[in-house]
Amino acid sequence: MEQLELLLLQFLRPDNEARKQAEDQIKRLAKDPLIVSALLHHMRTAPSSNVRQLAAVLLRKKVVGHWMKLTPQLHQSVKANLLESITVEHSPPVQRACANVVSVIAKHTVPAGEWPELLPFLFQCSQSSQEDHREVALILFSSLTETIWETLKPHYSTLQAIFIQGLRDPLSQRVRVAALKAVGALVSCLDTEEGVVQFREVVPHILSVSRECLANGNEDVAVLAFEIFDELVESPVPVLGSSITEIVQFALEVCSNKEIEVNIRNQAVQIISWLSKYKPKTLVKYKTVLPILKVICPLLAEVNNREDEDELSMDRAAAEVLDTMAMSLPKRHVFPVVLEFAAESYGSSDPNCREAAVMALGVISEGCYEIMRKKLPDILKVVLQALQDPEQLVRGAASFAIGQFAEHLQPEIVEHYETVLPCIFHVLGDVSPEVQEKAYYALAAFCENLGTEILPYLEPLMIRLLEALENGRQALQETCMSAIGAAAAAAEKAFVPYAPRVLETMKHFMVLTKDEDLAARARATELVGIVAIAVGRDNIQFILHDYIEAAIAGFSLDYSELREYTHGFLSSIAEVLKEGFVQYLPRAVPLALESCNLDDGAAVDFEDSEEEGNTSGGFGGVSSDEDDYNNRGVRNFSVRTGVLDEKAAATQALGAFAVHTKAAFSPYLSQCLDVLKRHAGYFHEDVRLQAMIALKNVLLATQAAFPGADKALSMEAKQVLDTIMVLYLRALNEDEDKETVAQVCSSIIQILQEIQYRDMEPYIGPLVEAILLLLREEAVCQLTGDTDGEEDDEDFEHDEILMDSVTDLLPALAKCMGPVFEPILQKLFDPLMKFSKASRPPGDRTMVVASLAEVAQEIGPAITPYIDKIMPLAVKELSSTEPGNRRNAAFCVGELCKNGGEAALKYYNNILVALNPLFSDNESDDAVRDNAAGAVARMMITQPQAVPLTQVLPVFLSVLPLKEDLGESIAVYNCLCSLLFGQQHTEIVTFIQQIIYIFAKVAASEKESVEVKLLIGQTAKQLWSHYGSQIQAIFDSLPPDVGPALASIISSC
Predict the structure, then answer these.
(1) DSSP string, 946-1011
(2) What is the pTM of this model?
(3) Helix axes 219-234, 173-187, angle to 10 degrees
(4) Residues of the chain with pLDDT > 90: what percent?
């Protein structure tokens, strides 16, 4: 061991060869237990602090492995010398390295009672008059908290007092900083209510030290405070309490102070973001939302580093936190404040303020969509005006906002297409390239949700888009491709005249191979698939082969985004070609599986300095930070999101291939199912979600490949169903992502539509329990972890998509099970009805009404015991200000009357009174009027004696034929036909002329079903047979646009 010090010096030299030689010899010496004494000696006595530090690092790594081989005397000597070294060492890095040695030995000795001197020594040091002693005590407590917490736990109050004393140390900033680090280590150990309450006393002292560090320019130390607050926010126990107000105030002070470095200010903004996401109830409870918004909104107008998207900037950070607040907090706390800010700022002469005003409205549109949809005309007026602002940054923000509105304020935004589209067209020719790009984004987003509304604009739109596509910059070309895809999807068959030129242009992009061109190639590949779906198989199938070959050739290029978009393209082509895609399966499926099996980049690299062959990492460097021990061996963790997107697209592709090629997919079922099982538990929700969809598609393909007898599932299909339901039930109960859980609900609904109850029966019990948990909002995906706040949950909106999917499961189960669903309804009824309270938003109430209406439709008279609880709710909703609520309520009362028997009869008069306004000209929604007609039809069919026909019939007939919701046609026209030949036909005979005219309009309708047309044709024929020449004049008087259609149907019956 004599040459050890020389070897340590040699290892520290910059010469790699010398380092390698020293490392090999030190590793050989380290196998001898005597290395412990030798390293301890050099840690204490070496003249060079670097050597002392390296000796301590190596001692920490080796001492545990040799500890049991050392004599008790040597144990005692090592412990005593370590404590002495810590108190006399003056180099902070060496001191920390020594502390880490103490920590690893303490982990093995203190719990066993073999180092009784340690804690008294540390308590003594913490009270020392020497700065170094106080500092090292806190350093050691910090380390020991993470290694022997259970031993320290009984001393929690004393420890906290020492930490507070350190934070308040009047003489030494080093001690205050060490105390701050020690407090950070303590946070993760808080697991009792008493400890949590006590810890809140520490927060003011943390803030005090942080403010002092910021004032002194020691900003790196202040970052420690934000790291502590990060831990506090994510803690599963309610640590924050009222201290949240102080934390918020500090974060706002920092993020609004332009003198502080932007990275520190960004940390402060992130704290606000995390609080909004994880502690929304606490923010509301302590009334911190308003002061947060008052600071965050103005940051949107701050100008710094806007040109460099990789650089931190406060306006982008503020936009992100505003988005989080809009998504996580009750909208009534967010929207009015942001709207007030926008109104004030838009009137400013400063273009940055005007930009901030419009940007704020765009940013919150996803989270505040329900309120903003109602105020859309006024908001839209401001944003469209901003599109004409003289400053390009304001026009760009307005284009962004329009795009956001188009994505999130559906369907109301589409109603304004005649105003919005011309404004967007105008900005497409903006002098600023940046504004142009945002305008094309807005156009793409807007067109995506248009249908036939796009047709009047299609010609000028395509002229502009094709010109930009063929002559524009690459970034603009890519955005143009998105806009063309949206236009094609909206126009469908009307896009056929434009398809050849678009497809010919895409040929050029789909053969590009330079790295800088591959993003454009990816977009072009995607666009061909969208166009193929839009124009349909007959218009494209004979030219697709070359595009498919070009797309598959792209897999040879090492570009994840191109592979991602190509999987999407192949999914689209499978949808278009159906069985015609089978020829490509032998190539497409392996490519998808290859992407699914890629190393996704969620990589943890391990270092093991104990291995003889590990030379690349040396001894892991000479860092002696506490994290070096806690994360021993872990050097890097990273996620390559491009590969995640590729995996998600490949997973989707497997499902698309299965569902569109059906039985022909059978050779790949087993391999595909194995991948999907793995991806159902994948760490990223995007991949899990696609796996949940694909699993259902694999079941459908299995049914096609292995059909069962007598509509039952085959053995092969049952095995797949069992695998899928196990994964689905696990997801419902355990998945943290709401969108994934919503998709599982939707997939189960589709499965229920395809299989019989006897095959689904084994899973009904656990499925109902999962639904019950979701209705109670107690599933894992619904838990925020915000136990600090005590706000009424009704103040916090649930995820609408999730709960709609959950409540859709009830009628799906009812349809599968029939009347035997009633005991399950009894179990789920009260948890469902809590969403119908008057204090709930309209969307919740109509969700309940719609779900129960469909349940009643499926289980028939079994709904009777629930009539008195459902009917008052449905009748009240008939007068809702929301058209969707009125529509669902009308459908619901009709189904309850149809199936509720005598129990519903007592409500008839109230129902007719409540329905009457829905037939008037004041009702602006045709679908509401159609459902009102459907309700009255069901009432007249079920209890005709309870309906005053002479009063009701004129009103009923005045809204026919149905205009929008043709799902009500069977009920309405069946009622009408029955009345004509029923016991009360004398009361309807006076309306024959009007009825025949209605029949003629139905016969001429392109939208009405054949079933309905046959029904009215047969009835008209009966009328002719019954009345003959008495009604000939009526038929002769029918207008030429409808009369021949009715005559044709009558003759075919």
Answers:
(1) GS-HHHHHHHHHHTPSP-S-GGGHHHHHHHHHHHHTSTTHHHHGGGHHHHHHHHHHHHH-SSS-HH
(2) 0.78
(3) 20
(4) 52
